[in-house]
TrEMBL record:
Transmembrane segments: none annotated. PANTHER family: 3-OXO-DELTA(4,5)-STEROID 5-BETA-REDUCTASE. This is NAD dependent epimerase/dehydratase. It comes from Pseudoduganella buxea. SUPFAM superfamilies: NAD(P)-binding Rossmann-fold domains. CDD domains: 5beta-POR_like_SDR_a. It comes from the Bacteria. Gene3D superfamilies: NAD(P)-binding Rossmann-like Domain. The lineage of its organism: Bacteria, Pseudomonadati, Pseudomonadota, Betaproteobacteria, Burkholderiales. Coiled coil: none annotated. Residues 65-353 form the PRISE-like Rossmann-fold domain.
Length: 354
């Protein structure tokens, strides 16, 4: 059967990697984004507002066999996150579900399923790590749960399979993405090299010394494709991480070595990036001019707040992949290699200095 993908959030860090993967595998790919950033060549691009009543008209005639929902919209409160992001999932599936073409719909959420949302980290009874799918939901408001519920309802209504994918912090390539630690750290290291400022870890002591893991967007793309095309992946929720573990006190000097700078010792007090980057727009403009970079707006490359949130967690965060392994997904990705592959691509694309 022909595989026709509809990727919601096709220009984002997950959507871009998924589009590249599916196109290479011979899929037809249509993508929905707000049209603010470029998408992968070969994707049939649809510019649409996922909250708009006009979405059904924008998606008329697409007839996807598989839907991949990889987008979210950050709101001022979790109540608004629930309303808007749950509504987006409902709107997409209401637009394409009745046509009968959809065989599977996949939703990408994340480990805040277990941790609680940004505004309520650790306020519920956070499960013991490693996080496992069987641990279920927290007793806190969380827009991920609203998204899941809308997915389950639509799948039951229209008769297609579903999967939910929970990555940890994602390493991947995307310009203008709001949640991108890999690019943020590359920009931060480049700023430190330019100014001679120390390369200070911006997170908590718990993150510095505790075990953790991450998710390469390319591995997540392979996981999404696998779940959408194998019976073992249907109607299941899965954690998705690279398969290795590390401590930031080990990783941080390796990132510094890549950029030819020295890693500073862990400071006595947490030193978030957002509070230290007031001068970054001016400095990045200087760097872009000096090195002939194609993006002089540091805000299109770095998301200080998101990196601060992930690295500032006061608890260890590590993920179990047993469920995927037992179901047949055995892929693996070295996390240091994921960082270095991304940094090399950013150099090739003239987004950071070579």
């Amino acid at each position: 059967m022909n595989n026709k993908a509809l990727i919601i959030g096709s220009s984002g860090v997950v959507g871009s990697a998924l589009a590249e993967r599916l196109l290479a595998e011979g899929w037809q790919v249509a993508g929905v984004s707000r049209g603010r950033t470029p998408t992968v060549a070969g994707v049939t691009q649809i510019s649409a507002d996922l909250t708009s009543p006009g979405l059904a008209a924008a998606l008329a005639g697409v007839e996807p066999s598989h839907v991949f929902i990889t987008a979210w919209s950050r709101q001022a409160s979790e109540e608004e996150n629930i309303r808007v992001n749950g509504g987006m999932v409902e709107n997409v599936l209401a637009a394409v579900g009745p046509g009968g073409s959809v065989r599977h719909a996949a939703l990408v959420t994340g480990l805040k399923h277990y941790l609680g949302p940004f505004e309520a980290y650790g306020q519920g009874a956070v499960p013991v790590t490693p996080f496992r799918e069987e641990q279920g939901r927290q007793d806190v408001a969380n827009f991920y749960y609203a998204q899941e519920d809308r997915l389950f309802e639509a799948a039951a209504r229209h008769g297609f399979g579903w999967s939910v994918h929970r990555p940890h912090t994602i390493i991947g390539y995307a310009v203008g993405n709001a949640m991108n630690m890999g690019q943020t750290l590359a920009v931060y290291a480049s700023l430190c090299k330019h100014t001679g400022a120390p390369f200070v870890f911006p997170g908590s002591a718990a993150q510095w010394s505790g075990l953790t893991d991450m998710t390469d967007a390319r591995l997540l793309a392979r996981h999404l494709q696998w779940a959408a095309t194998h019976d073992a992946g249907h109607d299941e929720d899965f954690n998705v991480v690279n398969g290795d573990v590390f401590r930031w006190q080990w990783m941080w000097p390796r990132l510094a070595d890549y950029f030819g700078i020295e890693a500073a010792p862990l400071p006595a007090q947490t030193s978030p990036l957002e509070s230290r980057m007031a001068d970054a727009p001016r400095l990045w403009s200087e760097i872009a001019q000096k090195h002939g970079l194609v993006q002089a707006d540091v805000g299109k490359l770095a998301s200080w707040w998101h990196t601060d949130a992930d690295l500032g967690r006061p608890m260890e965060v590590i993920t179990d992949m047993t469920k995927s392994r037992k179901a047949g997904f055995l892929d693996y990705q070295s996390t240091p290699d994921a960082f270095f592959d991304l940094f090399e691509r950013l150099k090739r694309e003239k987004l950071i200095p070579a």
